[in-house]
Amino acid sequence: MVGSVVAGGVDPRPFAAAIIAVGSELLTPEKVDTNSLFITQTLNDLGIAVAFKSIVGDDRAELTAHVAHALQRHRVLILTGGLGPTDDDLTREVVAAHLGLAMHEDPEIITVMERRFASRGWTMPAVNRRQAQVPEGATVLANPNGTAPGLWLTHDGAVIALLPGPPREMKPMMAGEVRSRLLALAGDTRLHRRLVRVSGKGESAVEEIVQPIYSRWLAQDPRIETTILAGLGQVELHLVLQSTDAARAALVLAVAVAELTAALGQDVVSTDGRGLEAVVGDLLRARGWWVALAESCTGGLATSRLTDVPGSSDYVERSVVAYSNQAKVELLGVPAALIQDHGAVSEAVAVAMAEGIRDRAGVNVGVGITGIAGPGGGSDDKPVGTVCIAVAGALTEVRTFRFPGGREMVKAMSANWAIDLLRRQLLT
């Protein structure tokens, strides 16, 4: 649906969606809005981009403002929650008032609710009659899983769906009748996506390389929009293209991904959605190699990530958490003199750990990690965040890092870099 006719000409608003989750409980730490994720996925599958999501408490003025903003800018509005029987369930009233629509009680909804209560041996409380209030011109969406029906409205070129808040009620309604109605409006346009995972560079470094590339895509036809997301030790490049021609979209995205891969080189982990752990597992399996890990400051986190992948028993042989100096000596064969001369957190000890676990396990490659996760234990020469990582395979490589953040971040970054250094050696 490229454009719709409204008073005065073609509607300038894009056929994009806004999602409003309603309920003060969603603004507390105890309750998380998961409905918006499901709604977003359903919309994206139809080729409908989501422009924004918002969470609004049970406040009439706030909800009115958000509804007005959404309808001013976009032609699809999905609201979830606020359709219950109590005074703080305001969604129906707010939407009707904003659109200037009168409300009436639907006797069929009353009958359905009374039967639902009677099937449980209960009498319907009078307060539930609020849920039978329907704005003028709205279509009622049946809710076999609860008492609150959904509502579908069209107004000045926009479509509005009011869905219940409980996921077990909202999901079937969104995936059923709402999806069918939107499908008829959306036409043949779909969203086509590619994901490029990058490791070894920070967000700003990746941006510096790829910005000149993706900025050109904004002016081409079809247009590709690129989003950069930074995580702990990894960066994701999300490419999105809207098109009615799936084959052409796939070709355009393939060319774009190839351009990024050429620019980023071995920093590209995958272009097919696989995570770092899965990529490393596939490389080990392809070579017929086994890996063993010796971890100190990470406490087994790198091994845990590798073994999160189903089938990792094909290539992960063992892991040792050698936290103390004594464990490094007894379990890995690290010379005590080496620790005495260089310190437990040193490249020499990381190499000895990696080679020690490799030789004792009789595997192709060993990984050694030793560092200072904090918050204490640092010094001027080796501050908190100092981590040494070694990979001992066909050749032995070792690097020293200075990771920022607290203990959890240092451990996460250390595990990620250890797995990534293993990946890079497997590529040689």
Q: What would you say this structure looks like, in words?
A:
By secondary structure, this protein is α/β, with parallel strands linked by helices. The protein folds into 3 domains: 182 residues, Molybdenum Cofactor Biosythetic Enzyme, Chain A (3-Layer(aba) Sandwich), CATH 3.40.980; 81 residues, Ribosomal protein S10 (Alpha-Beta Plaits, 2-Layer Sandwich), CATH 3.30.70; 152 residues, Maf protein. It is built from 13 helices and 19 strands. Strands 4-3-5-10-9-8 form a 6-stranded mixed beta sheet, sandwiched between helices. The chain has a 5-stranded mixed beta sheet with strand order 16-15-17-18-19, with helices on both faces. Strand 18 and strand 19 form a beta hairpin. The longest helix is centred in the C-terminal third of the chain and has 21 residues. The chain is elongated, with a radius of gyration of 28 Å.
Mind sketching the topology for me?
Layout: E1 5-6, E2 9-10, E3 17-22, H1 35-45, E4 50-56, H2 60-73, E5 76-80, H3 91-99, E6 103-105, H4 107-119, E7 133-135, E8 139-141, E9 150-155, E10 158-163, H5 167-186, E11 190-199, H6 203-217, E12 224-230, E13 234-243, H7 246-264, E14 268-270, H8 276-287, E15 291-295, H9 301-306, E16 316-321, H10 325-332, H11 336-342, H12 347-361, E17 365-371, E18 386-392, E19 396-402, H13 407-427
Parallel strand pairs: 3-4, 3-5, 5-10, 15-16, 15-17
Antiparallel strand pairs: 1-2, 6-7, 8-9, 9-10, 11-13, 11-14, 12-13, 17-18, 18-19
Helix pairs in contact: 1-5, 2-3, 6-7, 8-13
